[in-house]
Task: structure prediction
Amino acid sequence: MTNLNNHKVSVTWNEEKDPKEKGFFNRPGRGGKTPWDWLELFAKFAIPLMVALATIGFGLLQLHLADAQHQQGASALDQQQTATLQKYIDNIQDLLLNHNLLKYDPNSGLSDPYYDIATLARARTLTALQGLDPHRKATVLQFLYEANLIGGFTIGCLQCEQISPIISLGGADLSGAYLDGTYLSGSNLSGTDLSGTDLRGADLSGTHLSGTDLSGANLSGTYLNCAYFICDDLEYANLRGVNLSGAYLNGAYNLTQQQLDQAFSCRGATLPKGVACHRTPSP
Result:
């Protein structure tokens, strides 16, 4: 009997052949790179790219949150100022209706039985103005004017009758107030801080402005006929188009010729030394 030894015949592949050639992802494509090579290359760039995108996204989120916080803060401030203004008006109305504020005679001084009421009203006014924005400052001033609380002059120019203020605005902070187009004729604004205010087109005829700081104010088109400027700081005041007819400017200081030349008219105005009126159009 003959024994046949069955030798297993195995087909050997080239052992040195790159194992990456096995399967689809190991087949080299263009440029000699397999899909695995491209994935590895992509991974190298993907991580830094994702980090960069995450950083940018985080920064944008921070900006959004900061903007939202700013808007919330602005809204809260606006609500606070609205509440301050409303509370102030309510307090003054209470003094008018229930405590006879209008009966106070400023010429009587301490002897007037309503002196304490007027003192309280002035304190509340000065305090409220310090915490209000330009628009609400204008609202307070208009309210006081219409309530006949800040005194002034009857219109008559040469024969003005002075009305003493129940609430004196001396030292009041009205700086930056938006008073454009406001009617304040005959009011007493002496001693107030009107620096940087917008008074374009406002009617201040017959207004007492003694000691008022108008530096940096915009008075374009403002009507100041017969207004009393005595010891007023007019430095940087914009007088373009201002009607200064009959205005008493003899006590004003820091008034330059260049400022005065911008006025619409200064016919009959009493001017300080060193400046002359060259704007006197026919009536």
In short: The longest strand covers residues 152-153.
